Amino acid sequence: MSVKFITHLASVIMLLLFFSIASWYEGSELLDHPWEWKYTAIFSQMVNAEILNKSDISQLDFFIYAIKFKPLYPMLMMVAIIYMILLLGYSSYKTKPKKFALFLTALGVFIAFLGNLISHSPTVGGSIFKVSLIVTGSVCLCFGVVYYFQLYRVRNKRFN
């Protein structure tokens, strides 16, 4: 592992930690809005059938609230996570370009699928998050496919 890779990875982990804490803090506003518990406290409803007081709310629901109503830090979290995954994928498949192209394609499909999962969000933040996931997934998918066919074209030129 090179110093450059470790520096990038450490930097993105620190940014991810900061963005996660900021998202968690902003999402803690959920505790002050009991009328939102029914629509936003999804994880809490999985654990407890009914949410009666603040102590029943899961910490993960804070992130959902932040995505729905204050999407800046969750979006930055998403960017940091995707960058970290791309960095680790590139490091793993640096010598195997075909596998890296397939990795990019699979990552793009997965990210676009995640964006499609939250496609029915009635809030502006949820819509912004959905669109950004679908666009990011599409870009990864396109880069993966173009990179794969570029490798295929270069390989065929060598043999002709």
TrEMBL record:
Highest taxon above the source species: Bacteria
Transmembrane segments: 5-25, 72-93, 100-119, 131-149
Pfam families per the UniProt record, alphabetical: DUF4306
Entry annotated with the keyword Electron transport: no
Keywords tagged on the record: Membrane, Transmembrane, Transmembrane helix
InterPro entries: DUF4306
DNA-binding among keywords: no
Protein name: DUF4306 domain-containing protein
Organism whose genome encodes this protein: Metabacillus litoralis
